[in-house]
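Page 37, continued from 36.
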């Protein structure tokens, strides 16, 4: 129990802190001033946003009679921060590359930490509470050998950006886009030129490690992600006639002779962890949204776009691990997104979302509504310690952005 007026930062206690954390979350609705606010309901588990990470911690700030006035969450993992090239052995030269380039590209891994869910009750702001919370969290990172710490926020959240850049020495690092598409009352049709195959977790892991392990932020424990109960599956899109579920040869044979174009993505069930709710909409907007749903249900064959019921709690599916190769890869991605939409419809979700690098070549294949999406989700980063990475990438904070990033669904 802290003294009156004195802020004490301690670890979250699920047996007594749940209601206090929920109260602060409710007071700190997300959304820029003058716009609709979005409330996040963590379904009774305040630590669910980090629980699936290899290492995690939640801290709360308390005052007086254990009144919770702020909190922050953090998690630690090992990810790709660069890549290195080595000569292939003679036995590999006939299998790895068809262009007589006898080198292999391997990932360079480093230990990173992610800060999320920093909240301070509006009535207790400008008291240095956020600074205490972040400093305590960073100390936990250092004790656990973390080299880099990063966080994500809206590009126009000037207060958050200023806090981390001015007070803690973070720098702007990446500006990916969050692309959100509503789940309509009607199913989306998939081109008859595309076949969708669901991969097993083991086949998915092989494909991701062989093709995407050098992508920035690729998690070294991708197997844990793919085998998590919240993972709804990994889906591969190939040209019609290439493969189907019955003739799928396995990832090894597929990767040794892939079709000209293909694409892949995985689906993560955020709906069972937390729900969202849009607040502050006028009666006119609510009525218009309801009208679109009524028309869509009455005339599904028209394929009318409809606004889902976002003015009460709704669920979300997150699409991650998006990638592919070939001239028609973007069209393959579109087919996968339509399949993911239909899966979300079956499971009662309001929206599907993904996050991609600003220069991602396949983003043109991702259907989304601009009004629901975020063109620039700002990631800021800070180097905490010495170079603990497997290899040498120099100072990752100064590296130029890559074409793609791998967004870990456990942190979305």
């Amino acid at each position: 129990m802290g003294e009156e007026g004195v802020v004490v930062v301690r670890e979250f206690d699920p047996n007594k802190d749940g209601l206090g954390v929920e109260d602060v979350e409710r007071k700190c609705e997300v959304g820029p001033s003058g716009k609709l606010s979005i409330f996040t309901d963590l379904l009774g588990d305040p630590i669910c946003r980090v629980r699936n990470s290899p290492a995690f911690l939640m801290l709360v700030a308390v005052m007086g009679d254990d009144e919770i006035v702020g909190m922050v969450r953090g998690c630690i993992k090992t990810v790709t921060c660069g890549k290195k090239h080595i000569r292939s052995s003679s036995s590999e030269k006939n299998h790895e590359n068809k262009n007589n380039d006898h080198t292999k590209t391997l990932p360079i891994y480093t230990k990173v930490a992610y800060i999320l869910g920093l909240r301070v009750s509006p009535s207790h702001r400008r008291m240095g509470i956020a600074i205490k919370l972040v400093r305590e969290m960073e100390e936990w990172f250092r004790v656990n050998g973390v080299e880099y710490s990063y966080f994500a926020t809206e590009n126009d959240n000037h207060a958050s950006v200023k806090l981390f850049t001015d007070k803690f020495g973070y720098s702007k690092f990446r500006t990916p886009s969050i692309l959100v598409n509503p789940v309509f009352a009607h199913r989306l049709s998939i081109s008859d030129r595309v076949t969708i195959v669901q991969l097993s977790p083991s086949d998915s892991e092989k494909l991701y490690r062989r093709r995407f392990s050098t992508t920035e932020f690729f998690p070294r424990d991708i197997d844990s992600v793919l085998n998590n109960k919240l993972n709804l599956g990994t889906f591969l899109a190939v040209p019609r006639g290439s493969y189907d579920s019955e003739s799928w040869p396995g990832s090894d044979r597929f990767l040794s002779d892939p079709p000209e174009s293909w694409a892949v993505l995985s689906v993560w069930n955020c709906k069972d962890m937390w729900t969202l709710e849009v607040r502050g909409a006028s009666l006119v907007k609510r009525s218009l949204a309801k009208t679109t749903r009524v028309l869509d249900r009455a005339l599904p064959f028209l394929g009318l776009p409809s606004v889902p019921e976002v003015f009460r709690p709704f669920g979300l599916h997150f699409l991650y691990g998006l990638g592919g190769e070939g001239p028609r890869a973007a069209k393959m991605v579109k087919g996968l997104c339509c399949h993911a939409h239909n899966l979300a419809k079956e499971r009662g979700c309001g929206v599907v979302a993904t996050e991609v690098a600003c220069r991602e070549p396949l983003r043109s294949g991702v259907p989304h509504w601009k009004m629901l999406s975020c063109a620039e989700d700002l990631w800021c980063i800070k180097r905490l310690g010495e170079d603990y990475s497997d290899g040498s990438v120099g100072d990752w904070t100064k590296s130029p952005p890559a074409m793609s990033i791998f967004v870990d669904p456990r942190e979305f």
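The longest helix spans residues 329-346. Flag for discussion at group meeting. The first strand starts at residue 8 and ends at 11.
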